[in-house]
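Recap from last week: sequence in, structure out.
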Amino acid sequence: MLKKGTVINSILTGSCPKCQEESMYVVKNPYQLKTLYKMHEKCSHCGTVYKIEPSFFYGAMYVSYAVSIAFGVAFFVITHYFLQTSLPISFITIVAGLIALMPVIARLSRNIYINLFVHFDKDWKNHS
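Predicted structure tokens:
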């Protein structure tokens, strides 16, 4: 169970990093590709603005690269070492897996990036 108030909760659920009361995204399902990046302007509970500055989430591309590498290595280790597949099959699995997880990786990267700059505040109601 994810404990509210933790960074991991905000990252995995896509909730507001400050109050964790609502999703930052208009549509929670990342596989609705037309709305993959569509976010609320600000949190309706604590008022946190999600796009801190213009082009804020361009930095998430760097996070996305690291997350993609981590998933790719995991796919390789699982397929090549645990399932004993050949190298070509392992690499095909990596490519297919990364394509299939692209929406999830994109959202995770944004969530990680905003959590680097905005932190949970259990007393957010007193600061409003």
